[in-house]
Amino acid sequence: MTDKLEIKEVADIVVRFSGDSGDGMQLAGNIFSTVSATVGNGISTFPDYPADIRAPQGSLTGVSGFQVHIGEGEVYTPGDLCDVLVAMNAAALKTQYKYAKPQATIIIDTDSFGKKDLDKAQFLTEDYLGEMGIDPDRVIACPITTMVKDCLADSGMDNKAMLKCRNMFALGLVCWLFSRDLDLVANFLREKFAKKPAIAEANINVIQAGYDYGHNTHSNATNVYRIETKEKVPGRYMDITGNKATAYGFIAAAEKAGLKLYLGSYPITPATDVLHELAKHKSLGVTTVQCEDEIAGCASAIGASFAGALAVTSTSGPGLCLKSEAMNLAVTMELPLVILDVQRGGPATGLPTKSEQTDLLQALFGRNGESPMPVIAATSPTDCFYAAYDAAKMALEHMTPVILLTDAYIANGSGAFKLPDLNAMEGINPPYVPEGLKGEWTPYMRAENGTRYWAVPGREGFTHILGGLEKDDKTGAISTDPENHHLMTIKRQAKIDNINVPDLEVIGDTEDAELLIVGFGSTYGHLHAAMDEMRAKGKKVAMAQFRYINPLPKNTAEVLMKYPKVVVAEQNMGQLAGYLRMKVDGFVPAQYNQVKGQPFIVNELVEAFEKL
Questions:
Q1: Helix, strand, coil fractions of the chain, as percent rounded to 5
Q2: Distance of alpha carbon 412 from its chain centroid, rounded?
Q3: How crowded is residue 53: how many other Cβ atoms within 10 Å of its Cβ?
């Protein structure tokens, strides 16, 4: 076996970790992706966990997965199918094998494939590999539980604590398969468990045992793999999730604007991690309040905005409905506010841990009255940082609430993030009321671009009251005058319409494409990968991804009407397509719609687009 084993260099690889929801698959996947980002690989991850708080052990519904795609260059998606599948128990193998390539290497813990385990996973026989049509030569069958207990026999840990380390043995095996430096893994664990050094060292020992097992036995692998980095761009990198990147984007915006950051929130999956992250940063002037309900979270943020802070409220789909009354208050008061909506499967409580793009029309129109509000959609986990920054900048500079759309896929997924230079980022300049207007200023007096001046309480001579009732354009007093209401409606709309956003960018065969692929937000990576695959086959294809949805880029009509065929692909039943038809006269696109709670599959996209 030693003579046969070769180190094979590959451009990219996909690994899927799976096991019980308590088996630590998310941690193992996170460590592997972090180490890969550290050495300069491109990464894209997809955590896929159940909605159950704690499903019965070994059950089919309780399987938690974490998929990571690693490449020598930029990686756009977590991959359709995996090259390596880690299945920590029978239920994981039963439910996750469909995500593996036919030639994939399978790593299993044979200690979790006993008669009871197979019965829970609804296997009919004890020949589980034969039953699923899996070639045993592709399986690394290892008694992981037994070996972990042997490894930690002298550690003083109890049985339950030992079992929590099984994921690290599997990670060690994967690190051996891909020639990963265990020192990087050890550094990660020592930092993570800095307050529990004994736990860190136990996990490090188990990882080493898993690595040594693979190295010494060569298991059933004929190759180990190395993924080099094609182009190394100097800088400091970190593996960052979309939710953490969003939190950092808000912190950066507050720092740049010279303001305190306030988050009023109510916990809801999958947005809660933003609250958790921001709560760690009091030293940076961040205030977080966990409110009693969604509308309270939004209303408290409006109060913070009135007081002069960068105000944010965060939620997921159902919570956006509940915030709508308070959001409307921010519209009529013309106060800066960012509403983060981490979209999830609906309707109602729907699929709390799964991803969709089904809140778009709610974000655009889901309020009473004429209530215009900018909408921005982040395109990737790392773009969440810049989208949060841009949303805050837009809110502060144009005195308006702004909705930032992410979703569970990019919020929980991660990418390799190059830490930006804050000094190089665009400044944020709120329209504070000039001192020269003292004595004549009224609350709805506007700058040249139609934006209401911001008077922060405490400035002498600028005392004022705002509220939800319509106000007189000149005096700021309550008004029911029909002409004034019409005028204020037009001014609120014009303020949004006049916001300058970047032109819609077209990539691919920009001049002679026969098909333009259109999407928005988080589908960017999958649509980009589909376009690349089609162009590699000689097809003439281009792509345009909307990041700014309200207001639309000024060249939107020009781009959409330029190409013979256009397909709008989205994870809903056609909300963006309908909105674009409303905004662009004569635009009649083809549509590709899926609402599965899962990311697009690139091969399915290619098949559908080739028919067009």
A1: 40, 20, 40
A2: 5
A3: 6
